[in-house]
Design brief:
Helix content is 52%, strand content 13%. The protein is of the alpha/beta class.
Length: 352
């Protein structure tokens, strides 16, 4: 088995090639050109080949180009590899050597490889999220403009959201300085344009995603009964539920587990972990209120945590329970069942 470690960059990559005994055959830099890549792999002969690269934002393009030329393709987890590859003599050549040696040793921290269709659909929903955040920023800009021009006592009391139907009528008749009026008109124009774009993406995504495996089971989970976007975000970000050994691993991947600093008899927990899938976490968190409105047991649990620790902690704790439910319905391919009674410490059998 020939082992190839690749330190991938945008325009060029460094290759380190090891033979069956772990001895380096060659190491060189090559332009990222599909024709040159094909010639390189053909020159290695018919011996089985395994190749590893570190996950980057454009790893999918490289994967689709070379997967037909190697027997095994592995993706190194960038955060887990950072602790291994950082050294005082870090450079592309040393990194390629180390990636090849980690692959051969069996200690390579691997990342999940999603299929092309999954990656494309996921990119579509992430682009929607990008536009939603822009829309939120515009809404905040409009609110800031009103704050610097209109006293709260001068605003109508019949609505809170200035972008509702009655609010828009009020904004249209509002007398503002010429420059401020121009800013408001441009902000509203951009806001409505983003609304149309987001609507188009949502309709397109629903048409593309209706056949995703597990959809029928996830629909039974509270908070996802009528979901138009979040249900597909969850399915696409998880991709393969079997890569998680237990429900807590999925909650950890979604960033719904607190940091832990424990040693000996001391046990400390902190804020939520940061190295997580923020897209999955956001979709689950935004489904919490729909879930507690639908499920009495979840609502009771949410209220009990809220009394003890506040609404923020209650939302996160309920989202964590929701992630456990998602895990079990997808893993067991079954419909959602009501959680067992919550114990005194807030745990339940579903968390195991």
């Amino acid at each position: 088995m020939i082992t190839i470690g690749v330190d991938f960059s945008k325009r060029t990559s460094v290759y380190s090639v090891l033979d069956g005994n772990g001895q380096r055959i060659k190491r060189f830099k090559m332009e990222n050109n599909p024709v040159l890549m094909k010639e390189f792999f053909e020159a290695l002969g018919d011996e089985p080949k395994e190749l590893t690269m570190e996950a980057t934002r454009n790893w999918g393009l490289y994967y689709e180009t070379v997967k037909g030329h190697v027997d095994h393709f592995y993706l190194g987890h960038p955060l887990k590899m950072r602790a291994i590859t950082q050294s005082e003599t870090k450079n592309d050549s040393n990194d390629a050597d180390l990636i090849a040696k980690l692959t051969r040793s069996g200690f390579l921290p691997k990342a999940h490889i999603s299929g092309l269709e999954t990656r494309q659909l996921r990119s579509l929903l992430r682009f929607r999220l990008f536009l939603v955040r822009q829309r939120t920023a515009l809404r905040n800009q409009i609110q800031t403009l009103l704050d610097r021009n209109i006293w709260p006592c001068q605003r109508p009391g019949s609505f809170k959201n200035p972008l509702c139907q009655r609010g828009l009528l009020w904004l249209g008749s509002l007398e503002l300085p010429e420059r401020e009026r121009f800013i408001l008109d441009q902000a509203l124009k951009s806001f409505f344009g983003l609304n149309r774009q987001i609507g188009d993406i949502e309709r397109y995504a629903q048409a593309q995603s209706v056949e995703l495996p597990g959809t029928e089971y996830l629909r039974t989970v509270p908070g996802f009964h009528r979901s138009k976007v979040h249900i597909y975000t969850v399915l696409l970000e998880i991709d393969d539920i079997h890569r998680f050994k237990k429900a807590r691993n999925l909650a950890h991947y979604a960033g719904l587990i607190p940091r832990e600093h424990s040693s000996g008899d001391k046990h400390r927990t902190g804020h939520l972990i940061k190295q997580a899938n923020s897209h999955l976490r956001g979709a689950i968190l935004e489904s919490v209120f729909g879930a507690i409105a639908k499920d009495k047991t979840l609502r009771t649990y949410y209220q009990s945590v809220k009394i003890r620790r506040g609404s923020g902690a209650a939302i996160i704790a309920t989202a964590r329970k929701l992630s456990y439910a998602i895990y079990h319905v997808l893993k067991d391919r079954t419909c959602y069942k009501v959680f067992p009674s919550v114990t005194a410490n807030g745990a339940s059998a579903a968390e195991d």
